[in-house]
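Known limitations

Structure tokens in this collection are predictions and should be treated as such. Users comparing against experimental data should check residue numbering before alignment. To illustrate the layout, the record for Peptidase S8/S53 domain-containing protein is reproduced below. The input appears on top and the generated tokens appear beneath it.
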Amino acid sequence: MRPAAGARGGSRRATAGVLATVLAGVLTGSGWLLSVSPAVAVPAPVQPAPATRTTTPTTPRPTAPSSGPDAMRAAEYWLHEYGFDEAQKISRGSGVTVAVIDTGIATDHPDLAGAVAGGTDVSGAGAANGAEPIGFEPEHGTMVATLLAGRGHAPSPSTASASASAKATPGASGRTAGILGVAPEARLLTVSAWVGDGNPGGRDIMDQIPAAVRWSVDHGAKVINMSLTSTSTSWPRSWDDAFAYAEQKDVLVVAAAGNRGGGITQVGAPATMPGVLAVGGLDRAGKASWDASAQGISIGVSAPSEDLVGGLPGGTYRTWAGTSAATPLVSGLAALIRSRWPELSAGEVANRIVSTAHDEGAAGRDPIYGFGAVDAARALTADVQPAAANPLGSVTDWIRVHRRAGDPQTTAPSAVPSRRTAQAVPVPAAPAPDRPESDGGVVPGLIVVGFGAALALVAGAAAVHLTTLRRRR
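Generated tokens:
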């Protein structure tokens, strides 16, 4: 039985209340989970020869790097261990525009000089050009941007001699200080959104998301980075057209899977949407991260999500963890591929990323690693046969099969503790790693607000029922 209009509105508000940036340790407590229609069957990727990792991850090391911008470059272990430095010898993302739908990018960070080509605000609370960091975690968008397309900067005179004696990152062009992103020549679009409750601009996050996607497509993005997730596996009907529009315009959307440490035990929307490349997280040893990842059948590939560094507004830096940090690494890889082979479709780019990944966990695709750990060097060098279709599916096909005229925007929510959903999918057998350094997160009260609203609705309904019974007497 379909819920009434009021129930549909309540479902939409409940889903909106838990959409949040994927930061380590966010959204603690019980979450609202919505059921989702079965996914349309998707083809397997066109696999080349079995993958072997370019380099082997080292044993875990302390999360806090030495202070100073020069130490940031030394802390970027993923550039070498996951083949990004080799990939950058072939492509650096030139000519590709990546939209970052997030909390806004601080364009004054020295590592982002010249990287941001434009932007907008979809929240009503930020600057018109999207360059004002906003929300509960205003630094989040800048950290994402530096990992994706940071260009570094020249070392200061006091450290220049020390930097000269150190091995510079290949192709750094003298910018040996600060963060070098995985696609340092890609152009960024900053699309600021107010993620969470209390938006002073008055616009619901569920309305901001489709507006942000459409704007990004219309302004030349070939890749869209969404370091965002929710505790809902489904999404509102209002998102359908925007994501289908991106698919039809050949734009690849890359989204974060979520973090167990933040109370998200299974992948949530938008990473559950067909055609979206969902990114899981790896610990420092290259295995599935316990805190800084989630699990679900929609994960496409996994990337480092612990012991990462990001730039902050004002020109400083921070160590952080979460699939928010893993996602721009994969978006940057997509930019490298699209720059190297501009004729490839978004589906073929996704296929190249997942089919060249180093298989981890169960053979083939699994709900912990997806198709495996990202291998950037192999993605830029392997002989991959053209894909007949996007191995991640098609949201256009899903809409055609699963949406019906008059269907509610989302399935009615059920207040099921998120910890119980983990029983449906096996957890990695490896011992749990040490907890990564948390970089904060959206106020846990977002969950409390959503859950409290549901309790209030139930209590109100009960009161009305009792009043009716008394009147009948």
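For this record: The chain has a mean pLDDT of 77. The radius of gyration is 22 Å. Please report discrepancies through the issue tracker.
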